[in-house]
Every structure is written in structure tokens, then in C-alpha cells.
Amino acid sequence: MKIKEVNYVDIKTFDKNLNGFTILQISDLHINKKTSKMQIKKLVDMCNSLDYNILVITGDIIDCKVKYIKDKLSILNSLKGKTYFISGNHDLVYGLKDLIKQLQNITYLDNSYEKIVYKNETILLAGISDKFSKFFGHIREEKKLLSILEKNKKKIFLAHQPKDYKLALKSNCDLFLCGHTHGGQIWPFHYFVKIFQPFLNGLHYINDCPIYVNKGIGTWGIDYRYKANSEIALLRFTSENTYN
What is the pTM of this model? Predict the structure, then answer.
């Protein structure tokens, strides 16, 4: 787990009431037995040194059973401010229920939502279970979430996989955040990932909906990255297209 960069990203918006609202996104930590407590503490310290309104974790926090890494996961509870997370496929494999219990200061947002007030405006933050949920006995409630999102004006949608961007488009979201791809992790594996996912990394706009695919922090399989640096992303809505 080596953080190569903080990626500062402007999210274009025509809604001046959203101007300045800032989200810190981290993803795909893949914490396992080999991950050191110092690495996680450095991550938390880096996050806590930044200015943001909310922090979101878009899945794959763990890469082994929770019982082996409880002390490491507990460090994440020191993240400052309001923090939210949704499930990733690895969280489902290794025990989502145990993970939820361990992250006591972080709000679990699968198939749920929370209203955030910013400049006297209400922003709906919603998340959905990973696409593999049904194979692990977890319900994925697309219709419920779409119904809720459609009734609100300002909304941000979280999912683990880029494939779910279509749900954000259907409900006219102001922002869709995801991870999962690791940015390809090791070139030329990038080309293989593109077969299964519509976006590899970075910022995209589809029908005026901003889509950000986070390259994540950890690794899977081989503990190595090549031409796909790890990142944490600081995303700020701006109607002026500047980042100071």
C-alpha cells in the first residue's frame, strides 16, 4: 500500500450552490495480513491533512478475513469527519458483515443514502452493493435507490464498479464515483480490464454526468503497479473550473 499521489480534480457544475463542495475519495485498499499498521496510519494521516466536506471509500477495503486484521482496520476509524463506504467484490468474499462491525466510525451506505447539508442545500449521497452481491446472499436494490434519487435534485452516487455508471445517468446524478479497476495495475493488463469495464481511470463526462474512476491504493494478485500509480482523489465541484 503505497500512495503515489493526491489527485486534485475539478468537477464542472452549473449549479453554483454546489460550488466548493469537496469529496475525498479513496478506494481499493486491499488490506491483508502483509499490510503494516504504519502504512494504514500514513494513509489516515495524509487524508486527515486535507480539507474536504466528506470522505468516501468505494469498496475493496479488505483482502483477507477480518479476524486477522482487526487492529489494522481499527486505524481507519481515526479518519476525520463524515466518512462513508460501500462494498466491493473482495469485501463480499472475505466477510462484509464482519467488516461493517469493525468500521464503527464509518457509515455503511450499500443500498442506502444520507442527506448532507452544504450551504443550506441538501445533497443526497447514495450507494449501491457491488454487482456480485447476489452470489454472497446480499440484496442489491437498484429500483429502490433509483426511486429515491429521482426525487432529489442534488445527488452523488457511489458504486464499486464503473459498470454501474448507467444507474447514475438514469437518475441524473451530479457525480458518479467508483473504483475496482486499479487503473489496470500493471501495463499492458489495462487492455484486458477495458474488455470488462467501460472506463479505466480518471474523469469522464457522459450526458453532463461527471464520472470518476479511482485507481485505488492497494494491489491485487501481484503487489506491484506499473503505469497505474496508486492515488487518493480530492474532488471539488466548481462552476469556475479552477483549483486553488
Answer: 0.92
